[in-house]
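[SOLVED] Predicted holo structure with flavin-adenine dinucleotide

Edit: marking solved, answer below. Original request kept for reference. I posted the sequence and ligand SMILES and asked for the 3D complex as structure tokens.
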Amino acid sequence: MTPGSLNALRRDRELTALADGERVDLVVAGGGVTGAGIALDAAARGLSVALIEAYDLAYGTSRWSSKLVHGGLRYLAKGDLALAHESAVERGILMTRTAPHLTRALPQLFPLYRKTSRGQQAFIMTGLLAGDGLRRAAGTPASVLPRPRSIPAAEALALAPGLSPQGLRGALLAYDGALTDDARLVVNLARTAAARGAKILTKVEALRLDAESVLARDRLTGQEIEIHARQVINATGVWAGELAESVRLRPSRGSHLILAAGAAPIGATSVNVPVPGENNRFVFLLPQPDGRVFVGVTDEPTDGPVPRVPSVPESDVDFLLEVASTAFTRPLTRDDVAGSFAGLRPLVEGGGRSADLSRKHAVVTGADGVLTVVGGKLTTYRKMAEDAVDAALKRSGLLAGPSTTSRLPLLGATPRHRLSTVDASPRLVAKYGTEAPRVAALGEVDPELGLPLFDGAEISAAEVVWAVRHEGALDVEDVLERRTRLGLVIPDAEAARGRVQELVDKSLAGLA
Ligand SMILES: Cc1cc2nc3c(=O)[nH]c(=O)nc-3n(C[C@H](O)[C@H](O)[C@H](O)COP(=O)(O)OP(=O)(O)OC[C@H]3O[C@@H](n4cnc5c(N)ncnc54)[C@H](O)[C@@H]3O)c2cc1C
């Protein structure tokens, strides 16, 4: 085991120490990208930190994103230059320094049809050029994110052969950042924090917070534990209001569909289809490494109790299929849909339409002294974490240096130009970076582990063993839903379930 290994054994040991009265500098409630980012920021400054997560790392919104590492263009369109710049800077940090292995440049195609007015075309191109200005201002080289350009119809069709050629005049081509898997970023952050001593405790729910203690319940045993800290931080995303009365959120649901491989032939290029009648709104098709395509995204305010796992309403399915179909030769139907998922954006309450609400983050101090950090987005998690830890230091009087995370590569990271030299398949390198050969080696030592989980699966048994030994997976659902993402398509999850159960049981027994 390495210092960055998370597993059941380590969890038991660390939870027992806290239950026995060990006091830490910070306790963070919530194991999404924000909480994991805070744990890393704090641990990297030399603070002692415990993160408690009610279910699993990336259980909440962080696994339901579009997986884009935004350059901030949409914030620029709304006149928020500071937020746009922050987003572009954070994108550059992720793609060039902290997580080149988990990110890639995603080509984005904006098809231009005869019905697209010249005004609309100029509007999009102006936006893309401004976005490129943000890239330059953030210091991200064009070798990482190439400049936008106009391309002829033939080139657009070569990139995305499923596009309807009828009336296609050409296209605009730009680049933004994308993550292979959002849940993997969260797990990686948590492991990098653990490598610096952070206690990362999943299946531990915060029941009550105050400034310096948390009443928590171990969901595996039912035991209640009082955890003591110099400062408590609430990073429970869309659930933050359940633990902090003063925090008011207005969640907004975003749905995605998963199209079966081949249903919308777009190669490795994402396609942005304008929503008819709207100026600056697109439905986008995002190619996935397994050949499937995500179609997203809706943006609908939701009221009432916050569900643990949001569902996709039929109206969202209709909307996404209808808009996406306008750009394709063959209209997309429900038969093309292999799965779907929805997430809730933790937007800070304000007036106006949800699509127009700010994606800014906020660090709020409650009357009880608890710090809550909400809002923001995946791309800017690092800055949110830095701001939250700065606020915690100020409030608690703890002493530590400034944040170092903008220069701290995550586990498995290596400069982008070296990724191709890592001795493992590109699929494994995109998941595990420089750790990929260690995952592959499990399958070399025991050939059974080198086999796929089921016929036609890319994921091998070795990846399940790795998840239990090093990535904090404690049960089958952790593996299916968040370490492998097989759960996104129900027949895949069911085909793998039996074998995953065997592997999880055996791996857990092997830890003892
Ligand atoms: C549809 C959609 C698409 C998006 N696309 C993008 C995108 O492409 N790019 C981008 O940058 N951003 C995107 N975002 C935004 C981004 O996903 C979120 O801002 C971000 O994931 C929020 O992370 P978080 O850690 O604050 O919250 P969460 O990920 O929800 O984490 C909160 C955690 O707290 C835990 N928790 C709750 N209650 C308790 C408790 N009592 N005790 C302990 N733990 C608890 C939950 O289980 C959860 O794991 C998107 C959001 C949505 C909804």
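OP edit: The chain is about 35% helix and 20% strand. Thanks to everyone who chimed in.
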